[in-house]
């Protein structure tokens, strides 16, 4: 059983060695130039594929560069235009603010002046009205006194009138205010003083008194007219000034509101201007960096394309050179021939056979089966043509009984 197992293992080893030698022989028979050409073709295809992939990535990046540069340049132009517009707008609003502040100051001063004029006019009107009331009161009193004096003298009661307070009023008026000739004033004053000799002249006194009364009444009437005119003028002036003050007040309120709005707009536009300037500065920096980066990438891509093109040209030239007729003839002369390959294969089989014989002789399991294998390996008449046959569980020996007896007889002889 041990000999049969050993023979089976050796059978499998020889089949494997035969297969390896056959594979080695096939490799020797293959054209090595074709292998190199195939390898170079694969390299060329790989370089081309990598170039296409890199080209796609580069085109996407350059598209981003173009879009980014265009966007940033447009943003810079918009920012510059906005800065110019905001600067002009701020200048205009500053001028409007200054004009509004000047108008507000002027209108405020005008309103204050109008109110002051109204206050002064009212004070003057009050003073004039008080004077008129006093004049009217005095005039009414004096006129009443003169009327009483005239009535008393005409009734012959002149002496009793001289003792009354009305006579004193007439005396005071005649001395201080009455506009008459001095002779008439002296005659009246002499009568009012009660001097003798003036009784027969009572008619003259009555005439003087009536004239004084008429003058007083006329003066009172003129004063009343003046009072009326002054009152009308005052009311008209007060109405005009009131309207002026109301107009100025409305203008002042509007200007104060406009100033508040201008201050808010100035603050907002000033902040917007600062932000736009910051954005413009950032965009310029980023645009410069983007252009620099894109230019660097483009230069690198050109260098890479040039290098790849040189690689492809070198690969193509090498492939063409290897596929040329001259190269094939040269390689045929330098490569070993088929006979040399056969010799190498035969030498390989001999070496394997010697190794197998040495292993069989050194085996401790000696017997008829092992002797049969030794004969086959040494190239004797007996062979393994019918030994290896794959049936179910491995190699079996056909007709092993009869053949074993024949081979044992041969070995003993």
Question: How is this structure best described in words?
Answer:
Helices cover 87% and strands 1% of the residues. Helix 2 (32-154) packs antiparallel against helix 6 and helix 8 (338-361) packs antiparallel against helix 9. A hairpin with a 2-residue loop joins strand 1 and strand 2 (394-395). The chain has a two-stranded antiparallel sheet with strand order 1-2. By secondary structure, it is mainly alpha-helical. The chain is rod-shaped, with a radius of gyration of 74 Å. It is built from ten helices and two strands; from the N terminus they run H-H-H-H-H-H-H-H-H-E-E-H. The model is unreliable at 1-29, 196-200, 338-347, 380-402 and 407-413 (pLDDT under 50). It has helices spanning 2-29, 32-154, 158-162, 165-176, 182-192, 202-323, 325-334, 338-361, 368-377, 400-412, and strands spanning 390-391, 394-395. The longest helix is centred in the first third of the chain and has 123 residues, at 32-154. Keywords: Coiled coil, Signal. Residues 1-22 form the signal peptide. Residues 69-124 form a coiled coil.
């Amino acid at each position: 059983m041990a000999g049969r197992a050993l023979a089976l293992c050796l059978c499998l080893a020889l089949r494997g060695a035969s297969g390896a030698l056959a594979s080695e022989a096939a490799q020797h028979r293959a054209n090595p130039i074709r292998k190199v050409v195939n390898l170079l073709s694969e390299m060329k295809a790989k370089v081309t594929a990598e170039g296409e992939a890199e080209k796609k990535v580069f085109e996407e990046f350059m598209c981003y560069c173009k879009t980014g540069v265009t966007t940033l340049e447009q943003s810079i132009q918009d920012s510059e235009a906005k800065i110019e517009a905001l600067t002009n707008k701020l200048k205009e609003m500053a001028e409007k603010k200054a004009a509004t502040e000047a108008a507000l100051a002027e209108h405020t001063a005008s309103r204050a002046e109008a109110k002051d004029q109204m206050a002064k006019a009212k004070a003057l009107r009050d003073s004039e009205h008080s004077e008129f009331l006093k004049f009217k009161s005095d005039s009414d009193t004096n006129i009443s006194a003169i009327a009483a004096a005239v009535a008393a003298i005409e009734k012959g009661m002149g002496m009793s009138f001289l003792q009354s307070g009305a006579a004193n009023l007439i005396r005071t008026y005649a001395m201080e205010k009455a506009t008459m000739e001095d002779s008439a004033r002296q005659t009246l004053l002499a009568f009012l003083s009660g001097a003798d000799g003036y009784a027969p002249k009572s008619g003259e006194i009555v005439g003087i008194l009536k004239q004084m009364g008429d003058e007083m009444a006329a003066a009172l009437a003129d004063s009343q007219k003046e009072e009326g005119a002054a009152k009308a003028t005052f009311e008209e002036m007060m109405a005009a000034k009131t309207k002026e003050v109301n107009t100025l007040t409305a203008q002042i309120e509007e200007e104060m509101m406009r100033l508040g709005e201008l201050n808010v707009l100035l603050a907002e536009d000033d902040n917007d201007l600062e932000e736009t300037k910051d954005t413009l500065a950032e965009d310029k920096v980023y645009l410069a960096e983007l252009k620099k980066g894109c230019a660097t990438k483009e230069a690198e891509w050109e260098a890479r394309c040039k290098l790849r093109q040189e690689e492809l040209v070198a690969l193509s030239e090498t492939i063409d050179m290897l596929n040329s007729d001259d190269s094939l003839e040269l390689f045929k002369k330098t490569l070993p021939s088929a006979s040399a390959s056969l010799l190498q294969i035969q030498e390989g089989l001999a070496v394997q056979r010697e190794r197998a014989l040495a292993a069989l002789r050194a085996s401790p399991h000696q017997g008829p089966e092992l002797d049969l294998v030794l004969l086959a390996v040494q190239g004797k008449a007996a062979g393994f043509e019918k030994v290896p046959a794959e049936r179910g569980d491995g190699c079996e020996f056909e007709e092993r009984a009869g053949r074993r007896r024949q081979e044992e007889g041969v070995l003993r002889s």
